[in-house]
């Protein structure tokens, strides 16, 4: 029988009390921002307008939850931070590409993202499309070639495969296709969760597992614990997003609330009611914490990050 997760109110990781975790999150945000800054193409190189759009879409905004999951999961298996910079950048590039494309008129047709005009509004639709394409390819290029990863070619291939599966037809792209095909139709809870395990959960899962794979030959038990954690917290993240679309405000969300309802999208609050959606998020949060028990104190940062995901207001 596994032990219960450590008490979050008392546990420390090294000399860092959990009450200091918001600062740890800020450290992750700053670290990945610096890493992205040097890996994104500079505007001084040819195709400067495209490079400018890529940087606009990626830098200077966002919670960096996926990058933070890479760092926290990597630290849980004692992977070096330098090796984690590359997968953290890769998942943020894939996330940025997906947002640029999702915001296009042919998809969700949004005007505001991270408190500023969406990429196609700041530039134009063609440039936004190309920026997303280029960000996606750059994510795989750095995973394949960046020397900071510091693992074997076999391990690199595992990481590339993980990210490709998360972004492809069985992951984000497939989830978006299901969402578009649903067209506001009534879905069962199983159908809704399947869609969001692909559309949102797949990249969150990849973020967690890429962090673990940044160490050569991570332990099977740790990978199993992280797999279970990523499944639960990926769904919890989406439910929280759905709740914020109902309760959030534009000045904190960085985008216009109520857009899912306006576009006829089917969400957890519509299916379960707002109290039911909140209860489901809390249930998944509890599952995520329970799954971290085999990691002991090494799971503390992930546990606190799970709390941030559930309690965030943006």
Strand order of the largest sheet: 1-2
Give the second-level CATH assignment, the architecture. Answer: Orthogonal Bundle
List segments where confidence is low: pLDDT < 50 over at least 5 consecutive residues: 1-20
What's the level 1 CATH class? Mainly Alpha
From the helix content, strand content and strand pairing, which structural class follows?
A: mainly alpha
Helical percentage: 55-70%
Number of extended strands: 4
Count of individual helical segments: 15
The major β-sheet equals: 2 strands, antiparallel
Output the CATH topology.
Farnesyl Diphosphate Synthase
| Shape category | globular
The separation of the N and C termini measures 37 Å
What is the fourth-level CATH superfamily? Answer: Farnesyl Diphosphate Synthase
Give me the Rg, rounded: 19 Å
Query: Helix and strand succession?
Result: EEHHHHEEHHHHHHHHHHH
What would your notes on this structure say?
- The chain has a single domain, classed as Orthogonal Bundle (Farnesyl Diphosphate Synthase), CATH 1.10.600.
- The chain is 67% helix and 3% strand.
- The longest helix has 28 residues, at 220-247.
- Helix 11 runs parallel beside helix 15 (300-311).
- The strands form 2 sheets. It has a two-stranded antiparallel sheet with strand order 1-2. A two-stranded antiparallel sheet has the order 3-4.
- It is globular, with a radius of gyration of 19 Å.
- The chain has 314 residues and is mainly alpha-helical.
């Amino acid at each position: 029988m596994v032990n219960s997760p450590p008490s979050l109110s008392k546990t420390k990781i090294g000399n860092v009390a959990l009450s200091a975790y918001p600062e740890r999150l800020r450290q992750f945000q700053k670290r990945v921002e610096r890493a992205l800054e040097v890996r994104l193409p500079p505007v001084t190189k040819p195709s400067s307008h495209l490079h400018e759009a890529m940087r606009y879409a990626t830098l200077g905004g966002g919670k960096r939850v996926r990058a933070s999951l890479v760092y926290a999961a990597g630290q849980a298996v004692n992977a070096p931070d330098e090796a984690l910079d590359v997968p953290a950048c890769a998942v943020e590039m894939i996330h940025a590409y997906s947002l640029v494309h999702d915001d296009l008129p042919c998809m969700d047709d949004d005007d505001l993202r991270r408190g500023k005009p969406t990429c196609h509004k700041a530039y134009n639709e063609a440039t936004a499309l190309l920026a997303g394409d280029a960000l996606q390819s750059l994510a795989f290029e750095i995973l394949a070639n960046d020397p900071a990863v510091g693992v074997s070619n076999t391990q690199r291939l595992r990481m590339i495969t993980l990210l490709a599966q998360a972004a492809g037809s069985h992951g984000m792209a497939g989830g978006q296709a299901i969402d578009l095909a649903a067209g506001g139709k009534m879905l069962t809870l199983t159908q809704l969760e399947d869609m969001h395990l692909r559309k949102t959960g797949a990249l969150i899962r990849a973020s967690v597992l890429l962090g673990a794979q940044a160490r050569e030959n991570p332990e099977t038990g740790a990978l199993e614990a992280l797999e279970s954690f990523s499944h639960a917290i990926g769904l919890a993240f989406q439910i929280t997003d759905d709740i914020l679309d109902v309760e959030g405000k534009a000045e904190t969300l960085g985008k216009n609330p109520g857009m899912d309802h306006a576009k006829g999208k089917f969400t957890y609050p519509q299916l379960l009611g707002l109290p039911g959606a909140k209860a489901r998020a809390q249930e998944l949060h509890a599952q995520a914490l329970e799954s971290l028990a085999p990691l002991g104190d090494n799971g503390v940062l992930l546990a606190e990050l799970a709390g941030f995901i559930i309690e965030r207001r943006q």
